[in-house]
Amino acid sequence: MLAGACFVENVFSFNGLGQLTVNALLNYDIPVVLGAVLFTAVIFVVINVLVDVLYGWLDPRVRVGA
């Protein structure tokens, strides 16, 4: 996901997390790279949990347990 953001933002000259990460990598700014990767990972996990909860709520066939 982060690689896609970097690619799209570089091709279309958007300013965002991908561009920030690429600039930090080029300048060897390791704390910014770590922060960007950690932020992306946390957002990814939160969205996956929300999708799982909504999927269980919307589809009665999906339940926790047997």
Structural features, described:
This protein is an all-alpha fold. It has one domain. 76% of the residues lie in helices and 0% in strands. The protein is built from three helices and no strands. The two termini are 33 Å apart. The model has no long low-confidence stretch (mean pLDDT 85).
Question: Topology of this structure?
Answer:
Layout: H1 2-12, H2 17-26, H3 30-58
Helix pairs in contact: 1-2, 2-3
Overall domain count: 1
Please tally the β strands and state the result.
0
What's the SSE pattern?
A: HHH
Mean pLDDT across residues: 85
Short description:
By secondary structure, this protein is mainly α. It is built from 3 helices and no strands. The protein has helices at 2-12, 17-26, 30-58.
Sum up the structure in keywords.
66 residues; mainly alpha; elongated
